[in-house]
Design brief:
The protein is built from two helices and 25 strands. With 308 residues, the chain is mainly β.
Amino acid sequence: MSKSAIRFPLAILLLTAAAPLLSADSIQGSFERSYSVSGPVALEVLTRSGDISVRSGPSGTVTVRGKIHVGDRWFTGNRQSDVNEIEKNPPITQSGNSIRIDYLNYHDISLDYEITAPADTSVQTHSGSGDQKMEGLSGKLNLESGSGDMRLRDVSGEMRIHTGSGDVDGHGISGAFSVECGSGDVRIDANGEGGDSRVRTGSGNIELRGVKGGLQAESGSGDVTISGTQTAAWEIRTTSGNVELELQSGAAFDLEATAGSGNVIVDGPVSITVQGDLRKARHAIQGKVGGGGPLMTVHTGSGDVHIH
């Protein structure tokens, strides 16, 4: 056997042995910083890649914990010095009660943030890619992610939520909310103390429980399920999917419901006075429920409408 025939498999063996050493996330680091505050806090978090978690903590202190992830690919060199620099000087600035966490100026490095702040903290975020979780907060929330899920627990106050691709899941929600998803499901469990709200997803299901006030809900493709109390106009639409509305006893509103390909069904405790013969109104119903009240508009292009 020639020498060249021996060297070739040895080269492959060396490359195979080296590959695990150069895999993604081969270098990690972390840091923790605490900041003294007094009164309501304004928190801004910006990251190109990474998860963001903010939960309520003691008054007077904001604590930021960061976890550094490095995608160390072939020929990128040693990134340990970059990690060390971020640990020493994380991208955080404070001005009074305003705290800003800025974008990293490093290639192929992501940061996860775990933050505790006073309950009345207002939070503004923007993540290119990453999940976000908010818990126990009562300040204004303005949350954005290019791609990632949004999870909210026991939050109150005005909420604006936008994700290009990801689900939105909320439990114990108080106050008005605006939710927009390019693609993803929206599930909100409210406590009946809200205000006028708006939900839209390009592709996904919408499930809202315990809502109160005015409402706009729209899905490009997906089912819509809503229960709650209507105190102002409701407009509910889906291009393709079923719509189910579960209303409190004694609900009173003016109804305009259409199903392009499907049936409109009104049953249970709901009492309706319609224009025309209800038995023949299979695809469209217009009339007054409980004597009439705020307008409720319901439409599906393909699917059934069920109101009970």
